[in-house]
Structures are given as C-alpha cells and as structure tokens.
C-alpha cells in the first residue's frame, strides 16, 4: 500500500521558496519607492508650473519704474541700487496688512539706508470706490502727503473685507492725516486727470499680468501677498546681491 502523500514541504524546497519570496518582496519595495519618487517629482513640477509667470519673474523695469525725484508716490533715493515696485488697492485688506505690519521695517532697514527705493502703483480692482480712494491718495500726494494718507487709510482698515470709501469718509481720512489744504483736497477729488491716471495705472497693471494685490517686483523678480518681513528681507537681499550690492 502506497504511503499517503505528505502535507509538508521538504526543507530544501522550503528554503528555495523563502529566497524567491524575499527577492520578489525586495523588488516590489524598490518599485514602490521608485514610483513614489516619480510621482512626487511630477507633483512638484506640476505645482511649480502652476505658479503664474509673473510670480517668478517680473516684467521689464522700463514698463513701470518711474525714477522721478519729484514723485509723490515714491519713497527713498532715486539713485538707490534697486526699486521695489508695489501695486496696491486702498480697499484691499491684505494691502492694509502689508502697510501696517511690514512696510515700516522695510523703510527702516532698506529705504532709510539708501539701499531700496519704493514706488507705489495704485490700482482699482474692487470697484468705483477703489478708484475714488486712489484719487484721494493722489490728491493728498499733490500736497506732499501721499504716504501719510495711505497710512491713515490702512490703519483704519478692517481685518477682512473691502471697506466702503464714500466721499465724506475720504475727506475724513484727509483730516486725520493732517492734509493742510482741505479745500484744495476736495477740489482735487474731482480732477479728471487724477481719475485718468488711476485708470491708466490699473489697465497697465492688468497688461503686465498683475492679477492680485499687494504685488511687488524688485530686480526682475516678483512676489505677492502680505508676506512677513523675513520674506521681504530674503527677497530684497537677493535683489541687492544681483545688483552687486
């Protein structure tokens, strides 16, 4: 009578099976790691490609840098090594955050030391009242108080949302800012040339690809948003290094 078939695997065959299984497992792990790395790299590439071109490289300086020593919308030495161009809307809450929290340190560390000149470009991205507010700031600039007016407006800005900017409020900001000739200020609110200048700046910003504010360009590179001072230090120091400073 034949012996019953064994239900166990001979030791030698068992060892061979273990070796094969281990090899297959190692190959599977290696392929898994390779596929993961490839997908990660692809994801990083896709994320980088999704950043608008203006976020990586600014337009030609000649398109927007004014370099006018009498410019009321500029701070700093016209001969500073670099110009930090800022696009802002007076109804933009993030513009207010930047001007309250970050701009003072930039002025102290870079503008007052002669390293950087700031030039502001006004835009009206949030409706007619944005245009009216930009005109009011320019009217203050006609009396040499553009930045005092901006400071007053942004200090009063809410934490979020776009504040209303009726005429009486704009005049109230002028009083708070200490505009010396309020009659002239009110007359300038109706000045067609100031309105045209704001509309022209807004159209130019859109042509340049500035789709949101605040937006900044220095040394041919661009960043956006109410970034902390540490980010601006890195940004400006890089621009200065490129300029050989």
UniProtKB/TrEMBL annotation:
Keyword Nucleotide-binding attributed: no
Keyword Repressor in annotation: no
Source species of the chain: Leucobacter ruminantium
Alphabetical UniProt keywords: Disulfide bond, Membrane, Oxidoreductase, Redox-active center, Signal, Transmembrane, Transmembrane helix
Name the UniProt record assigns to this protein: Thioredoxin domain-containing protein
PANTHER family listed in its UniProt record: DISULFIDE BOND FORMATION PROTEIN D, GLUTATHIONE S-TRANSFERASE KAPPA
Membrane spanning residue stretches: 19-37
UniProt cross-references to Pfam families, sorted A to Z: Thioredoxin_4
Domain Thioredoxin intervals: 45-241
